[in-house]
Amino acid sequence: MLNLVLFGAPGSGKGTQSKKLIDKYQLIHLSTGDLLRSEIAQGTELGLEAKKLMDDGKLVPDAVVNGMISNKLDANKGAKGFIFDGFPRTTAQAEALDQLLASKNESISVMVKLVVDDEELMHRLLLRGKESGRPDDANPEVIKKRLVEYHSKTEIVGEFYKDQNKLQSVNGIGEVDDVFNAIVGVLDSLR
Ligand code: AP5
Ligand code: MG
Known about the structure:
Radius of gyration: 16 Å
Distance between the termini: 11 Å
Structural class: alpha/beta
Strand order of the largest sheet: 2-3-1-4-5
Bound molecules: BIS(adenosine)-5'-pentaphosphate, magnesium ion
Number of domains: 1
Number of helices: 10
CATH class: Alpha Beta
CATH superfamily: P-loop containing nucleotide triphosphate hydrolases
Mean pLDDT: 97
Number of strands: 5
Shape: globular
């Protein structure tokens, strides 16, 4: 299996690159942000709780996202592999994911980190906020809070995978296709 953690700050291009990668490698795309927005759209209790935190740019509790990922792994037995997009976002989530995969005799193959500076992230998210309909893109203060959450709680997850010799960084600035080719270079070097 190819199990990729696509890592990076809000707006670094995780969703954009995931769409291209699932086509090339026939992987299942698991974005906890997309899963949470789908819960919100369906008006579930979990969605209602998550919405308050997401609209405020805060992370939702580890147990909530760990549970969603566990369900999706079970629902996709026989998959060629997974792209984890926006998950794990805390060290506790990374530990939970390792345990979940180990219980299925699987593991993370590699973490690819998309490196983009905060100024460019802000620019991209404000631009998307004009049309995405995502409440967390509409307000510069909420975007700033998401970046603070990233730097204070999430960025350190890179160290977790670095310690396992699984962290690979890619320049996330430039043409979408150039970033894609750099990721493909990393993935193909694993084979
Ligand atoms: P989530 O949905 O994961 O959002 P995010 O991390 O804030 O990231 P985005 O989806 O905004 O960015 P992206 O990296 O996917 O970039 P994209 O490709 O879209 O999470 C939302 C919220 O859910 C969180 O704040 C939290 O509350 C909650 N949540 C989710 N997962 C959680 C977890 N595990 N634990 C706890 N809470 C969780 O690109 C962004 C824009 O840039 C687009 O407009 C795109 O067109 C553009 N773009 C992409 N690539 C380029 C390029 N190379 N050049 C120029 N523009 C580009
Ligand atoms: Mg995304």
